[in-house]
Amino acid sequence: MMHANLMNNYFNLNSVYTEEDFRHHFQMRRHVFELLLRDVQQVNPYFGQKRDKAGRPGFSPYQKVTVALRMMAYGSSANSMDETHDMSESTCLDALEQFCDTIVQVYKDKYLCEPNQEDLNRFIRKAEDRGFPGMIGSLDCMHWDWKNRPIGWQ
Q1: What is the pLDDT of residues 105-143, one digit of tens each?
Q2: Which among 79, 96, 111 is the end of a domain?
Q3: 29 plus 47 within the same structural domain
Q4: Separation between Cα atoms, residue 93 and residue 81, nearest integer Å
Q5: Nearest to 92 by CA among 109, 77, 73
Q6: Are residues 6 and 66 in the same domain?
Q7: Average model confidence (pLDDT) for the chain?
Q8: Domain range for 69
Q9: Which of 42, 73, 141, 142 is least surrounded by Cβ atoms within 10 Å, i.e. has the fewest?
Q10: Same domain membership, residue 82 and residue 31
Q11: Radius of gyration (Cα) for the chain, nearest Å?
Q12: Residue-level pLDDT at 131
């Protein structure tokens, strides 16, 4: 039932929500979601749909990935997913852990590598263009002069 609702709302040809709605709800475009879904399914059997002891279908790959992404995008707790996705807290946590581990496994070589000198130069130029010179490796903004910051932070 929940899988059918999810598909009808977001993924079917004449879905309830538009592409813009999808992007707002998932914090990404639909084709990016589909790419992530395909990649995690190819690598990790957890994202296949299994049957329970009674032969009923378990959670679909779409449901598992949706729950993981919603928890990350909105900082939602695992137990809050029960109401909207009919998935227990422990299953949500499993889906999140499996998703994160699989994403790292799939994309680490391409996206999770140390920047080379060319990357660093590009990052420095971007930071300088935005008014943050010398900000490589300093995400805490400690080098940013904030004249009205609270006294307790000075």
Answers
A1: 999 888 877 778 898 888 888 888 887 776 666 555 555
A2: 111
A3: yes
A4: 10
A5: 77
A6: yes
A7: 85
A8: 2-111
A9: 142
A10: yes
A11: 20
A12: 79
pTM score, two decimals? Answer: 0.72
Number of domains composing the chain: 2
Q: State the CB neighbour count (10 A cutoff) for residue 62.
A: 19
The residue ranking higher by pLDDT, 129 or 100, is 100
User: Are residues 69 and 33 in contact, defined by beta-carbon separation less than 8 angstroms?
Assistant: yes
Residues 107 and 126 in one domain: no
Beta bridge partners, 57, equal 51
Alpha-carbon torsion, ordered 119, 125, 130, 133, to 10 deg: 100
Identify the residue whose tokens are 């059918």.
4
8 Å CB contact between 104 and 112: yes
pLDDT computed for residue 144 by the predictor: 53
Tell me: the pLDDT tens digits for 56-80? 899 999 999 999 999 988 888 888 8
